[in-house]
Design a protein that fits this description.
Structural class: alpha/beta
Strand content: 15-25%
CATH architecture: Alpha-Beta Complex
CATH class: Alpha Beta
CATH topology: Spore Coat Polysaccharide Biosynthesis Protein SpsA, Chain A
Helix content: 25-40%
Number of domains: 1
Largest sheet: 5 strands, mixed
Distance between the termini: 23 Å
Shape: globular
Length: about 300
């Protein structure tokens, strides 16, 4: 019987994380990465079900940094090594929530068990925006390890100078760059291919290390330059800057920053997507209660 592995990146709101897990607990296993910068006691200080695993390798994640990719790779590696058979590995944020019953999500993935739910655009169609994200070196993750205020100040200054210098990043011309949404659902076979590239092609890893928001092109580029591109949603028409048109299973607000509330219930209820991004305890509680009562129990 098909199962799904949910890979969850979490850094806040433990109440919502457990609500998210409960809502998806149908023929599923959960692999959770907690940002190393947070105290994990508030998340794991309770007895976890057997199908929930908080992975030991924790990365201090920086927005738009390669650390985001590192955290995702740690989740993928953990799920592939669990010894279970999954139709897909589904990447989620701790601020997501299903808007279709968990059983419907599992069945949808199982009925498309050879499909890679990932779409992307050719970044070369956007030379003034997306190509600058990979052709210039961006310093998002700390350059100096340390927790002291003086160390952090020096590190911020160095990174600011590095970003202002607009140093060239050596992107290989024989690798077509693709861009898309961070949140995807890939088959184990595709994920194994990703891990094989990471382990064998150090050049690829290094040419991504100082790009901007590599989580939005690292995996997409691997898929788009492999045989798995034929099984994916593939290259999309470039319609302008933004990931909304490239969302795979998620309903995402065009602003990318909006927290959905109960006032958005009609939009959520009419959506054909499977997950909602972004929600959180208190701000979205009314909407989450509506989803539970009207959409997940339908």
């Amino acid at each position: 019987m098909d199962r799904v592995a949910y890979l969850i990146l979490a850094h806040q709101d433990p109440t919502h994380l457990w609500r998210l897990i409960r809502s998806l607990d149908h023929r599923a296993d959960f692999f959770v990465h907690l940002d190393r910068k947070i105290d994990d006691a508030q998340f794991v200080g309770r007895r976890s079900p057997g199908n929930v695993r908080f992975i030991e390798r924790r990365i201090a994640v920086t927005w738009a940094g390669f650390s985001m990719v590192s955290a995702i790779l740690a989740l993928v590696d953990e799920a592939l090594g669990a010894g279970n058979e999954y139709s897909h590995l589904v990447l989620l944020s701790g601020a997501d929530y299903p808007i279709k019953p968990a059983s419907a999500i599992v069945e949808h993935l199982a009925s498309n068990r050879s499909h890679e739910f990932i779409k992307y655009i050719d970044m070369r169609n956007s030379p003034d925006h997306y190509m600058r994200q990979i052709e210039l070196r961006h310093f998002r993750d700390p350059l100096i390890a340390g927790t002291g205020s003086a160390v952090k100040l020096v590190d911020r200054c160095l990174r600011k100078i590095g970003n202002m210098a607009e140093l060239s990043n050596q992107w290989s011309e024989d690798c077509v760059p693709y861009f898309g949404s961070t949140w995807w659902a890939l088959t184990p076979a595709c994920c194994e291919h990703v891990m094989s590239v990471v382990k064998s092609d150090k050049r690829y890893v290094e040419m991504n290390r100082n790009t901007f928001a590599p989580d939005e092109h690292f995996f997409h580029t691997i898929v788009g330059n492999s045989e798995f591109r034929e099984r994916s949603d593939g290259v999309q028409e470039y319609l302008g800057v933004g990931t909304v048109n490239l969302a795979n299973l998620h309903l995402i607000d065009p602003s990318l920053a909006k927290w959905f509330t109960v006032e958005d219930r009609e939009e959520v209820a009419s959506s054909d997507r499977y997950f909602l991004r972004k929600v959180k305890t208190d701000v979205s509680t009314g909407l989450l209660d509506f989803i539970d009562a009207e959409l997940l129990r339908a």
